[in-house]
Amino acid sequence: MPQTPQLNDIVFAERPERVLKLDIRMPTNGAERPPVVMYIPMGGMRGCPKENGQYWLTEHGFAMASIEARVSSEAIAPAAVYDCKAAIRWLRAHADEYGYRADAIGAWGHSAGGLLAALMATSGDAPELKEPGRTNPAVSDKVQAACDFCGSPHDLAYFGLPAVKSRFPGVTENIRLYLGGLAEDRAELAHFVSPRTYVSSKCPPMLIIHGDEDSSVPLEESIDFHEALRAVGVDSTLRVLPGIGHGWDASLTRDDVVGFFTRTLMS
Length: 267
Fold this sequence. Notes:
Radius of gyration: 17 Å
CATH topology: Rossmann fold
Shape: globular
Largest sheet: 8 strands, mixed
Helix content: 25-40%
Low-confidence stretches: none
Number of domains: 1
Strand order of the largest sheet: 1-2-4-3-5-6-7-8
Mean pLDDT: 96
Number of strands: 8
CATH architecture: 3-Layer(aba) Sandwich
CATH class: Alpha Beta
Number of helices: 8
Strand content: 15-25%
CATH superfamily: Alpha/Beta hydrolase fold, catalytic domain
């Protein structure tokens, strides 16, 4: 198999806590001016090692980037949101330099990374989420497509409900750390950083995949998010995986992901 050109440890933002970096992989087939998909390797809002990026889309003509973002032990929300948006702006601003398309940027993530990818899709250029003193301020942070693997909660307030908290204590704790308090006590912030808040007809196409035996995050919340997108005319696709939990072999959904990003970013 051809080797994927590797560009590592590129600084895209400087934060008080640390410098944030990303890695880029170009298509193995040498395609010129490919679309780029940004992978957000966030887990539980507790870890985001860019070395965990998924790069196999490079075998299908895409460039890929894997990013770092601040985690809850470093800074509470909306720090991670600002970091993801900064990475999108950086990728767009440097498209000519690195040889991919500025007008075809996708976001992708699993679990907490999926939540952030969904938020990138729904909140592109939202004035409420314009970071004060942001880098590349004149550059759009919109993405043209997003893939969300079991990224609920899309509405963080859902985890303020007692019945939900008791069913999903792990995610409830992750959200508490992310928000700096329980969702019901930090309702304004929870609303501010929820993908569901920004759903509108302007959202780009989305692919949502979730296992029906996921005991970590609730399937019903992904269904609700999908239905909200569809209700305003967004091109949203939901695939529910029977008998699957919070993770699965990549081969199970590879065709879905390739087909989705090909359809939405390659034109």
